[in-house]
Amino acid sequence: MWSGRLKLTVLSEDRLQMKWKETEGNINGYKVRVKPMAGDSEQEVMLKTKTPKATVAGLSPTKEYTLQVYVLNGSQEALFAKRKFVIEELKNASQTRNNRRSSGTMLADGPICHPDKALYFTFVSYLKTQAFFPPFCSFQYQTLSPSGSQFQCDTSAMTDIILLVDGSWSIGRNNFKLIKEFLSTLISPFNIGQDKIRVGLSQYSSDPRTEWDLNTYTTRDEVLEAMRNLRLQAGKLFSQEHTILLCSSPGLALTHVLEQNLKPESGARLEAEKLVILLTDGKSQDDANLVAQTLKNLGIEIFAIGVKNADEAELKQVASEPLELTVYNVLDFPLLSSLVGRLTQVLCTRIKGKRNSENTGEVKPTLCGPTDLKISAVTSKSMHLTWNPPLRPPKKYRIVYYPSRGGIHKEVILDGAISSLQLANLTSHTEYLVSVFAIYDTVVGDGLRGVTSTCRSILPHSSSSDSLCAAISIFGRCSELGWTRPQGTLSNLLICFEQGIGPETFRGPFSPVSFCRGGCCKARTPLGPPRYLSFSEISHASVRVSWEAASQTVKAHRVTYVSSRGSNTGEVEVPGTASSAVLRPLSSFTQYFISVRSTYDEGDSSPITGNVTTLKVPPPRALKVTELSGNNLQLQWEAVAASDVVVYQIRWSTLSGEKSQELSVAGNVATTVLPSLQKNTDYKISMWAYYKDGARSDTVSVQHRTNSRSPPTNLFINSETPTSLQIHWKPPDGRIQHYKITYSPVSDNSVMASGKSSSVTLQSLLPDRAYKVTVSAVHNTGESESMSTTGRTGIDMMEAFGLVEKEYASIKGVAMEPFIFSGSRTYTLFKDTQLTQRTSDVHLFAIPPEHTISILLRLLPETSKEPFAVWQITDEDFQPLLGVILDSSKKSLTYFNHDYKADLQEVSFDQQEVKKIFYGSFHKVHVAVSHFKIKLYLDCKKIAEKPINTIGSISTAGFIMLGKVTRTRGPRSGSASFQLQSLRIVCNSLGAEEDRCCDLPALRDEETCPTLAPACTCTSGLPGLPGPPGPPVSLSSHVFLEMSILYTLALFYAVRTP
């Protein structure tokens, strides 16, 4: 409706679309102002575009408004058009015009085959009977040329594109604007039209929603305008403890595409290629793989676009092959624009498919379709179609029919070998448009269209006599005579015609006419309908319909059904020998009206009808609760027999009435974990199911009281020795009977520890072995879950070199001192003692990159002033690889190894505290080496820390030596004299921090250090008998005893010596 320069279109009760003729010259845009005459506040829309179109919502249908359109040019604005309107008046005027058009003449064109454009069919004349045309087909070829500076996809191939947009709250309104800009730019290059490319859009979060169908908009400008007006849907919020879950369910959304967006009534065309473009920003809350595979199996191509938090693995599972063309992922929403260039090119190429080759300009012509469409045997409810097949037989035929004045489009798919079809269940006295398309493997042939009207149904009153008579007026070209069947058996009917209506016009649901004489024809009675309709196997989604055939001559049975709300309809055809059919899928707890007709060679019988109500959807069953560690519960259930559960909803709360929590679980899952529950608390756990048809099952519940069977936590190992490991843990809440400790690998040994303890020492272990240790707490209610960790015993070099009480005597140049402290002996290594072992004989494993060398030693007055290696590893040529060197002349300690580049590196320490080592007292030295630094500890006190490169691989093919002077090499090289009490290698860099120096008298803490083993054991408190007299004491013995006492004192005051 143009008024001056404005055209107004009513979109709904409160929405109005306005268009105007575009102005000439350069402008900045338009400003649209809608002003009510009285009452409502003023609405104003600012447009920064040259598109001469706008939509305003929220208007009152009965109020008068003034519409003003201004042209913007810089800071100036000028009134371009003005008009007053009332939405209700505009709506009535539009309806009047439509009624006029409907009563006028309808014209169209003849069929034309075009390689890349939609098929156009027109009719030379409009007939009340039927329309069919002689075969006419011409092929038009065109060469596709490259696009210009702005890419345009030069194809009009029939394609249905569904945009599936994530509308959850996690996106946010600002980012949603970027999504709309991205989608607008993406679809702009394509030729959108009713018979070309169609675009529909659905938005999803927790529930999918169709924003517009494929047949809602017929131009590119209309689609872009709808995109600009799109609003963020946002999803339901589920509270799970203190976390807000923003549910994004692409699986449910793809199901919505399959069941709603791609239906014929939503604008989907069977002959059109179909693309789904899915855009999401997060990990899905349901399983989209199954429905995605279903879509792909149907030949529907899926493109998956992820933004920000999207799971790329899920995108690849959903998308079609090849993934390099169908999967896209960007780090944030502003980067979506970077995808447009490539994605539009890919979409364009996929739409063109195999029709064109853009490089060579080769075009394959579209195949012609059927010809000579004939419509016959028209009644008030049915008509019969026949046609001539094309020269090349098609794979399938697609027949589409619908009332010309508007109504539901219905379609039938036939095998390519069939060239006729009976259309039934039509509306009487209604004009129908019929189209027949030939479908090949990759293309759709020309269509053939016809138009005709069903007969008017006339039902005269019945008569008690044996003859029925009615004066019938003929409407249009046919009428139908009906009557109520009289009682008794009828074998034949005699039908007479008057006023020049001959028997050649007679047709009806009878067998062929027996004879005709004058104006009368004799025919047999109507065909028998099925009998004894019944229903069984009723569920929430299906029902079995049973009947008994009236005759053995029945060729087929057609079962139709429609829900009481009219939203679910369908038809099933079974052979004439069948006596039942299963109808599915149906909506739950819904009444359905069922009719069954029998098909004979002569036609269809009248139907037998009935109604049935489906059951409510079943709830999940057999809920089972199992306690897990960490205050968690595992909930299990038996899945319902149906496979159409979309999601399970679970809610739990304490019986004391605290705030409940909820969790959504995919419909193909039968177990989940309820996290972070309180111990010793009564809970009510409820559960229900949502189905594909939107139905919700009844709620099932179970009560459970949680128990306190928590495991110990913070499990760790320290104080590693060659034969022991100390295990520590944090006790759990509750009363503990005892702890169970299991360790391996030698064997699965177990020990028990008191319920009040928090540590235990594992004894009698093998040196240099990795042990897996597990600890569990035994409560009054049972044993908790076990916690585990791994530790390694240290390497005891004293034992490896035979420096133990039972073996030292066999080693030349070694003496054992008589005093004992902390259960350990002290051994003196004299000058030039040869203590060498093969590395492979000592180490079960190679020296790890992180390790600690622990040495308790004393330098003697006669110790060499030359540098010597207390302990070192060499290669087979006795070249040093790793070790610790003491230099009496410099009063320094040096650690050396070969780094990961095989270069020798040395780190020296000469601090004042280091000089204590050289003053003749016992000292404990720790050299702790990690990947990037080395630390020196003296008497369990950190002295210094320095950087170091990561150690390289140390060969086990060489030797380990003690006390070797650094200037000499070889198996018989010189060695220094010193005393050694312990020498261990610990396979971590924390050995020094865990050592409490309990083997140094001056640093021993009796409260924290292990109890010293007694030197002897007495059987009673009474003194025993005196022993035999000993030999006379010589002067040398006195001297030795005095030296031993002084030595013990020196050991006790070791760390106090300046």
What does this structure look like?
- The chain has 1058 residues and is mainly beta.
- Helices cover 11% and strands 38% of the residues.
- The chain is built from 12 helices and 65 strands.
- The strands form 16 sheets. Strands 52, 53, 54, 56, 61, 62, 63 and 65 form an 8-stranded antiparallel beta sheet that branches. Strands 11-10-9-14-15-16 form a 6-stranded mixed beta sheet.
- Helix 2 packs across helix 8 (340-352).
- The protein is elongated.
- Residues 102-149, 235-247, 354-366, 459-480, 484-492, 498-519, 1033-1041 and 1054-1058 have low confidence and may be disordered.
Brief sketch in words of this structure:
This protein is mainly β and 1058 residues long. 11% of the residues lie in helices and 38% in strands. Residues 2-93, 369-458, 529-620, 621-710, 711-796 form the Fibronectin type-III domain.
